[in-house]
């Protein structure tokens, strides 16, 4: 937060300030003042707005992991029995990873044998992922960093060697204190004052990411942008911030090649999979503020893989068909609060930029096109995000120093305010103020005696003479 004050002494430091940058703007217009040169003394006090504090982090090239959940089932008395389960994160930085599962014991007839499994995975990186760069999050004292901190981007940030007032991060908390990098120079360069006369001026602050408050004015001028949450991107499912790293779970991936090898002493494993199915679906076609188009789908009682198609109308013209897939994951499910619980799955599906209106969406389970369901989904566009770069001028009325105000009446008013006992006895004045009060007091008494003499020697006799002449 940027606060502007005016002081007679530019070197004075108010106790409530955090960072003080005094500035003197010379050569103002002398209009409405005496012939002496005018100058404006500004004290800029900078404090954290609403005590907000943000932490910036630099993300480099990420490590890519796939989390593999592997379970071995055994057929016992016409039922499946879980014999072994393991969850392993596998590093895919080299594009290939393997998991050696040996020493797994199962009962085979009357014997207890150890199985040997080798899983080989080949997975390319996701096409859309969080890119390296500078991100930031709000620091809230007393709150858990992992669960409550929210990573943000979409705004220009200063790195540790930059000090631009046009980017977020020019006001920093280091070594238990706040400071502005190259503060005195940057603040003086950013502040522009246009004096209309010596009694009023207009001020302009050439910077971004601040809130301006001028003393004497209740209004605040906000000029900041905190970007957007990373989790608002459709390809990001979740973000967990740790003390020295960030764990990003992507909502999109690439095709995985899985190879399973077993010991030759045992017959090859039997692969069994559930059929794909779903009960119903609904959703919206959304266009976000950055012109990303996607299907926001909620699907009831779904599992497996679902095939979808987008049509412009119910004629299902193949030339206007846009296919897509939905792969159901347990991490996308939730249950409602009805007495009979229903399981739902929600997902965002990227779609073509050519879809700009309400469309006819069809969805069917993989391998069973006869169970296709179709619905009209509304198109909901969000206006483009507006970025404001205007820096309006702000009016101000500086405190006039000395006896520069023009006119006898104005000077008399200043003397009367100076000799006010409440002003003279004020604790906030400097050491020279009592002497100034005493001098102005003598001047005030002299003026009072002069006015009294003029009244008794001139005005009153003249009035008596006028009345006497009128009676004759």
Question: Can you walk through the features of this model?
Answer:
Keywords: Membrane, Transmembrane, Transmembrane helix. This protein has five helices and 30 strands. Strand 15 (210-214) and strand 16 (220-223) form a beta hairpin. Mean pLDDT is 75; it is low at 2-17, 335-341 and 400-407. By secondary structure, it is mainly beta.
What would a concise description of this structure say?
The chain has 472 residues and is mostly beta strands.
Q: What integer is the average pLDDT?
A: 75
Number of strands: 30
Which stretches are poorly predicted, pLDDT < 50 over at least 5 residues? 2-17, 335-341, 400-407
Gyration radius (Cα, Å) is 39 Å
Pfam families: EFF-AFF (PF14884)
Transmembrane segments: 438-463
GO cellular component, one term: cell-cell contact zone
Keywords: Membrane, Transmembrane, Transmembrane helix
What distinguishing features does this structure have?
single chain; Immunoglobulin-like; 30 strands; mainly beta; 5 helices; 5-stranded mixed sheet; disordered N terminus
Task: Reconstruct the topology from this structure.
Elements: E1 2-6, E2 19-28, E3 38-46, E4 54-59, E5 65-76, E6 79-91, E7 96-108, E8 111-122, E9 133-138, H1 145-148, E10 152-153, E11 171-174, E12 177-180, H2 183-190, E13 191-197, E14 200-205, E15 210-214, E16 220-223, E17 228-229, E18 236-241, E19 246-250, E20 257-262, E21 280-287, E22 293-300, E23 305-311, E24 322-327, E25 333-335, E26 343-350, E27 359-365, E28 373-377, E29 379-381, E30 394-396, H3 408-418, H4 421-424, H5 433-471
Transmembrane segments: 438-463
Keywords: Membrane, Transmembrane, Transmembrane helix
């Amino acid at each position: 937060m940027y606060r502007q004050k005016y002081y007679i002494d530019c070197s004075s430091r108010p106790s409530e300030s955090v960072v003080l940058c005094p500035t003197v703007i010379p050569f103002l217009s002398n209009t409405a003042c005496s012939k002496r040169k005018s100058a404006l003394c500004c004290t800029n006090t900078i404090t954290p707005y609403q005590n907000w504090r943000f932490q910036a982090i630099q993300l480099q090239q990420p490590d890519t992991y796939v989390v593999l959940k592997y379970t071995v089932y055994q057929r016992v008395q016409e039922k499946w029995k879980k014999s072994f389960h393991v969850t392993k994160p596998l590093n895919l930085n080299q594009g290939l990873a393997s998991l050696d599962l040996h020493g797994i014991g199962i009962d085979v007839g009357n014997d207890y044998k150890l199985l040997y499994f080798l899983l080989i995975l080949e997975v390319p990186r996701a096409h859309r992922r969080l890119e390296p760069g500078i991100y930031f999050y709000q620091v809230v004292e007393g709150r858990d960093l992992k669960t409550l901190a929210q990573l943000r981007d979409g705004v220009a940030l200063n790195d540790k060697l930059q000090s631009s007032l046009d980017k977020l991060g020019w006001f920093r908390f280091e070594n238990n204190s706040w400071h502005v990098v190259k503060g005195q120079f940057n603040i003086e360069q950013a502040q522009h004052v246009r004096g209309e006369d010596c009694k009023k001026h207009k001020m302009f602050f050439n910077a971004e990411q601040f809130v301006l408050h001028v003393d004497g004015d209740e209004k605040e001028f906000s000029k900041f942008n905190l970007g957007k949450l990373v989790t608002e991107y459709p390809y990001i499912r979740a973000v967990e911030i740790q003390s020295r790293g960030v764990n990003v779970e992507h909502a999109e991936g690439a095709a995985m090649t899985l190879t399973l090898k077993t010991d030759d002493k045992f017959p090859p494993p039997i692969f069994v999979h559930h059929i794909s199915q779903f009960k119903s679906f609904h959703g919206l076609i959304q266009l976000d503020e950055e012109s990303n188009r996607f299907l926001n789908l909620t699907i009831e009682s779904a599992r497996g893989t679902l095939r979808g198609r987008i049509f412009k109308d119910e004629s299902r013209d193949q030339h206007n068909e846009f296919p897509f897939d939905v792969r159901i994951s347990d991490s996308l499910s939730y249950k409602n609060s009805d007495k009979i619980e229903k399981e739902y799955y929600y997902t965002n599906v990227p779609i073509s930029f050519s879809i700009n209106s309400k469309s006819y969406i069809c969805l069917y389970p993989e391998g069973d096109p006869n169970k296709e369901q179709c619905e009209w989904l509304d198109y909901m566009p969000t206006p483009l995000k507006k970025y404001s770069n205007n820096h309006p001028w702000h009016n101000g009325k500086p405190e006039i120093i000395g006896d520069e105000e023009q006119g006898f009446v104005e000077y008399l008013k200043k003397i009367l305010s100076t000799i006010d006992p409440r002003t003279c006895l004020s604790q906030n004045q400097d050491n020279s103020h009592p002497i100034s009060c005493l001098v102005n007091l003598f001047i005030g008494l002299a003026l009072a005696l002069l006015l009294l003499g003029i009244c008794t020697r001139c005005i009153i006799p003249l009035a008596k003479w006028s009345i006497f002449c009128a009676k004759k």
